[in-house]
Amino acid sequence: MQRPDRPAVIVLSRQNLPTLDRTNLGAASGTAKGAYVLKEAPNGKPACILIGTGSEVQVCLDAAAKLAEAGIHARVVSMPSWDLFAEQDAAYQESVLPAAITARVACEAACGFGWEKWIGLRGKFVGMTSFGASGPAPALYKHFGITADAVAAAAKSLV
Length: 159
Hints:
Blueprint: E1 36-39, E2 48-52, H1 56-69, E3 74-78, H2 82-87, H3 90-96, E4 104-108, H4 116-119, E5 124-127, H5 137-144, H6 148-158
Parallel strand pairs: 2-3, 2-4, 4-5
Antiparallel strand pairs: 1-3
Helix pairs in contact: 1-6
């Protein structure tokens, strides 16, 4: 909203999303950079990175909890804007998406087109692979396989 050289938008959801407890998560100010580490791996050395864009962030947080139960440490990245993140310097991009961590899963309730830039050739996409449908979000997420179990399974297949 503070960029007078381009349009801005506030995106709201009609979904009943949980409020994120920022005492345990990265600051929302990271949104201004397009992407930021929302939740770091418990040991600070993630085996994989889970990336969500909006309402899918909670799916990634839930998947990270499932992976932790299996002894797999995951970093969760909130990436509300590809464009803003692409404008950041290489050092910042590396701090969020280290090149050495190629086990990456993107989760978005839309198509996977373009995600290869952020997840690489090894990464996996969890989202819609067909045309959309109408209905309550939880039912649609289940129908399209946009679930914490699917994200966790994709991550497990990469580590």
